[in-house]
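Quick one: structure tokens for this chain, please?
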Amino acid sequence: MLEHIYHKPLLDADELFNTLMEYADMIKPYVIDSVAFMHNAIKEGKKILLEGQLGSLKDPDFGIYPMTTSSSTLAGYGAVGAGIPPYEITDIITVVKHIHQQLVQVLLFLKSSVKKLMNLEDAR
């Protein structure tokens, strides 16, 4: 595909592997077993801050389609992403931002949906 559609040279597997191994050496000092790290922090009684973003309107299960994300944004799923048991989350702080463009899009989407539903009712 690279060669015939995009008119680019084929990738050299050995060259690509060697380049990626160089990157691996660069990031190796920053890579840890994050599950063990979190469990050790819990055992040591350290406070852990989990940060989530995007808000519930972007949640894949309860958000407003099609404007959702691929990961859960709800506080209850923080344990899943952190690799810790849910009972270890003892305090939840919620930060609310002002209305932004996404909410405007959601309201327009809902307005459009209601209009379509009303037109369906009138057609009956």
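The mean pLDDT is 80.
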